[in-house]
Amino acid sequence: MTTSLWRQHVLPFSIILGLLATITLLSDYFLHLLNLVWVGRYLGIPGTILIIGSLVYSLRKRKYISSGNPKSLLTLHEFMAWLGSLFVLIHAGIHFNAILPWLATVAMSVNVVSGMVGKFLLDPSRRHLQEQRQDYLQRGLQQPEVEQAVFWDAVALDAMTKWRKIHIPIFIVFAVLALGHIISIFLFWGWV
Amino acid sequence: MSRFLKFVLAANLIAVAALSFTYPQLMVGPGKLIPGHKQLNADCFACHTPLSGASSERCINCHKPRDIGRLTTKGLFIAKPLTSTPFHQQLISQNCMGCHSDHAGVKSYKQHGHFNHAQLRLDTREKCQDCHKSPNDSLHQQITGNCSKCHSQEKWLPATFDHNKYFILDRDHSTRCATCHVRNDYKHYTCYGCHEHSQSNIRGKHIEEGIRNFDNCIKCHRSANEDDIQGNVRGREDGGDD
Fold first, then answer.
1. Model confidence pLDDT, tens digit, residues A82-94
2. Which of A37, A95, A99 is the closest to B27 by Cβ?
3. Could you tell me if B24 and B62 lie in one domain?
């Protein structure tokens, strides 16, 4: 992988993912320090609303709705899903209690990573691999030699493609688990 | 998405749903219950009313307010109660969830050791010493009652009383409270509790200056600084000669 690919794609991917983890940990720390843990409890609501709002892009992409610029909606999808996930992660905190919401949190986190793999890594890597193949071919290498030369890059790309492919299935898992968690809250918690 | 993947997904979600109904305490319960309620672990609706949460009425079914702090739910005498004085009988309303949370995960949302004294009846609220012991320091050992004069019911610290507003306790006046406030009476004071200020010498000094009304010392003297005498010394016979 070239330095520019690293700087342009892998680094932003790592920074944004790291930022999500760092802000979550810092927020949790300061909420405890300032005796404001209850704020985290309610952040699950705006987090869920943001994630639901981010689905407008998915509806547009699958032509369930016809209005809206897909590119703008994609940007909005990425931002709302990232921020909503941040709120939900702070809401989850570093407390291990019920299993169902934790499974939902894990599914959401996997979904965030898979979405970010698609945004930052998959397309550039695909282009990069294609360019490498053409470069080797132009240098006079035979097809089997080219495939051998790009073997590990191809394996990495394949893994990324799989990450991308699980975006929708894992979202369904997340949605069902989150719904179970929300229903259990309504069932057992007193809002008043 | 392949049919196989859909099948695996559906099977897993059904399994999770089944586990949620079979083991609700593990799947959806926010942490372990307190040891006393261990036997209710899998019976969520023993305390929770569907869609409205845990209800005080259900707590009171077992925990009779008149017995709390005195008798167990089985009617046995409590030899070592958690509080020195039973106080649940003095609450203005029975809102159990206002203070108690039985699940470990919910406890982190409560302020530990914080009791809202506004929940007590007014007459009980003023009797701090019924529940609280006075600190063992030399200041508090001299005082009985009247806690609200210096402390709020929200927080013990910071103490809200500022003695300097009345009289500055400088090096010469940093003494025991009882020197000036005899019999723990903090509404009144005397300046004749020490050797320096005897009634005869204070009287002599003031009469010499033509001041006859010198009963309330802090009306003019807010500190020991003789250059910081306040008021226009109305007690003077001539009505105002400096």
1. 999 999 999 998 7
2. A99
3. no
The model's pTM: 0.70
State residue A163's pLDDT score: 75
Indicate the pairing of strand B53-54 with strand B48-49: antiparallel
Distances (CA, A) of B110 to B75, B160, B210, B220: 29, 25, 63, 49
Q: Are residues B59 and B81 in the same domain?
A: yes
| Cβ–Cβ gap A99/B51 under 8 Å | no
- Cross-chain residue pair A99–B26, CB shorter than 8 Å: yes
> What single-letter DSSP state applies at residue B94?
-
Q: Please, which residues 138-167 of chain B have a Cβ atom closer than 8 Å to chain A?
A: none
Segments forming the whole domain that contains residue B89 = 31-129
The whole-angstrom separation of Cα B104 and Cα A143 is 62
The residues with which B54 forms a beta bridge, in sequence order, are B48
DSSP B123-183: HHHT-GGGT-PPPSSHHHHT--S-GGGT--SS-SSS----GGGT----GGG---HHHHSGG
Please determine, for residue B134, whether its predicted confidence score (pLDDT) is greater than 90.
no
